[in-house]
Specification:
- The chain is of the alpha/beta class.
- The protein has a single domain, classed as Aldolase class I (TIM Barrel, Alpha-Beta Barrel), CATH 3.20.20.70.
- It has ten helices and 16 strands.
- The strands form four sheets. The chain has an eight-stranded parallel beta sheet with strand order 3-16-15-10-9-8-7-4.
- Helix 1 packs parallel to helix 2.
- The protein is globular, with a radius of gyration of 18 Å.
- It starts with a strand and ends in a 7-residue tail after the last helix.
- The mean pLDDT is 97.
- Bound molecules: ligand RRO.
- The site of ligand RRO has 15 residues, from loops.
């Protein structure tokens, strides 16, 4: 049995869709829900419609992807229908939201009807948003507190690894009243075309995701588990069930999958069934492996 209660949400399994992948339309979110995800997180939405950065905005690199999408979104004012459609998939729908200040965040959270909110204070390449505010513990605390006072549903805060000490940011989110933290967003990175000498991404630099970042994410989850009382949700480079188990042993209550969904939409049910078989063979429960790596 993989079902669990996570920060106020009932989940049939701990394997969720991460923000940014197939999360722009209700139809695609519903499809992911129907393919076995425990919950789905939308693409981040903000106050005004945004076209995003110029192309190329996503490229494949060794062991991962670099993206600088630039928060393309239709504005929260045009997004409720997509959330409502996604809810037909029968699993919790978490709205990822971004803003430039606590007022932006609370306006959006006060207006959208979602099962939970994931606060994006961690996009690595958005001027005035994301990691530009999520690297300051005082702002993270303020934003979290503002959202908590404008909604009754659980509030998760997605953290950037592009800091010296992710624990201090996690603690700030906890002080602000977060119900969980999500670690990690992408790692700032860059690629250059050696024929022309030009940076490849339209935005010049972007965020690295995929297999390459898993060890970084594991360490962040491990460190956050040590200092927080609220649950940590792990994300970053999960490609198969072994990765998911590793995150849970590091201290993640649940995980989110992003880049790997691009290759295989059935990844949620595949991970769940392999994870169940592994736990059965080892005669362990999900609860027993949670944070296991801290017992040594
Ligand atoms: O849209 C993006 O460029 C983006 C976002 Br919002 C994010 O949170 N992380 C990322 O790597 N890209």
């Amino acid at each position: 049995m993989l079902s669990l209660t996570l920060a106020g949400l009932e989940l049939r399994n701990p394997i969720m869709l991460a923000a940014g992948i197939m999360g722009t339309t209700g139809e695609s979110l519903k499809r992911i829900a129907e393919s076995g995800a425990g919950a789905v997180v939308t693409k981040s939405v903000g106050i005004e419609p945004k076209a995003g950065h110029s192309n190329p905005s996503m490229i494949e690199v060794d062991c991962g992807y670099l993206n600088a999408m630039g928060l393309p979104n239709p504005s929260y004012k045009n997004f409720q229908d997509e959330i409502d459609e996604a809810k037909k998939g029968g699993v919790p729908v978490i709205a990822s939201i971004f803003g430039g200040c606590s007022l932006d965040f609370s306006e959006i959270a006060g207006a959208l009807q979602a099962d939970a909110f994931e606060l994006n204070v961690s996009c690595p390449h958005a001027h005035g948003y994301g990691a530009e505010i999520g690297t300051d513990p005082d702002i993270v605390e303020d934003v979290t507190r503002a959202v908590k006072s404008s909604t009754k549903v659980p509030v998760w805060v997605k953290l950037t690894p592009n800091v010296t000490d992710i624990k201090s940011i996690g603690l700030a989110a906890q002080r602000g009243g977060a119900d969980a933290v999500v670690a990690i967003n992408t790692i700032r990175g860059m690629a250059i075309d050696i024929e022309s000498g030009y940076p490849i991404l339209g935005n010049k630099f972007g965020g690295l995701s995929g297999r390459a970042i898993k060890p970084v994410a594991i360490k962040c989850v491990y460190d956050l588990y040590d200092v927080l009382d609220i649950p940590v949700i792990g994300v970053g480079g999960i490609s198969d069930w072994k990765d998911a188990i590793e995150f849970i042993m590091a201290g993640a209550r649940a995980v989110e999958i992003g880049s790997a969904v691009g290759n295989n939409i059935n990844i949620f049910s595949e991970i769940s069934s392999c994870m169940e078989a592994f736990l059965e063979e080892k005669e362990w429960t999900l609860d027993e492996i949670y944070g296991m790596a801290h017992e040594v």
